[in-house]
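tokens incoming
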């Protein structure tokens, strides 16, 4: 029973993240109200396999998946995306599926922390760093601040090569609400690339 429940939760999170896209057209999406249960079921059935970890390889979504992506109630589904959901699916693949289905994420779209960042970083010189960090490190920097977990080797490999000033310049107040900056500092230290005392990342200043 426990395994069945876990499998259902993973599929549920996959479906919600696969909906994290916005049409390129200028029309306005409906407000995040109403019932999107059927959209969720359709996404589970048609798109779940295309947004699971690992980030590579990426598989082009089926026409059935794209047909669902084209019609879902995005605001309703996005309202259900939590940081926990984002630890269970690959947001890099979500972006890939959205683009492949001709309903790409628009800059500034808000659908969980990862989608929000990717949406505001389109074309930036640290976009690939950001995608790698989301994929490998996000589970180590989510609240609460007092439950610190040593990062994986894969996470540290990413931390060692990212453009930190570029990334820190993009940390907004909204992002700081869903990340633990204390954990960000902890992960950097564990990965042997610590922040200097007094360094500012977003509005957070590393303590002396």
């Amino acid at each position: 029973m426990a395994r069945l429940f876990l499998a259902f939760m993973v599929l549920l999170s996959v479906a919600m993240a696969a909906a994290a896209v916005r049409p390129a057209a200028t029309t306005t999406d409906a407000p995040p109200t109403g019932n999107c249960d059927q959209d969720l079921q359709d996404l589970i059935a048609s798109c779940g396999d295309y947004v699971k970890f690992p980030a590579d390889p990426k598989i082009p979504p089926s026409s059935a998946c794209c047909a669902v992506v084209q019609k879902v109630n995005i605001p309703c589904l996005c309202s259900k995306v939590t940081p926990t959901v984002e630890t269970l699916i690959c947001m890099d693949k979500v972006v890939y599926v959205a683009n492949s289905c001709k309903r790409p994420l628009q800059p500034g779209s808000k659908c969980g922390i990862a989608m929000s960042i990717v949406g505001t970083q389109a074309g930036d010189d640290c976009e690939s760093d950001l995608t790698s960090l989301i994929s490998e490190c996000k589970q180590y920097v989510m609240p609460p601040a007092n439950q610190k977990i040593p990062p994986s080797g894969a996470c540290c490999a990413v931390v060692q090569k990212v453009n930190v000033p570029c990334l820190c310049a993009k940390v907004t107040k909204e992002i700081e609400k869903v990340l633990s900056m204390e954990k960000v500092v902890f992960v950097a230290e564990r990965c042997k690339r610590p922040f200097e005392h007094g360094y500012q990342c977003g509005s957070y200043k590393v303590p002396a």
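note: The chain is about 50% helix and 0% strand.
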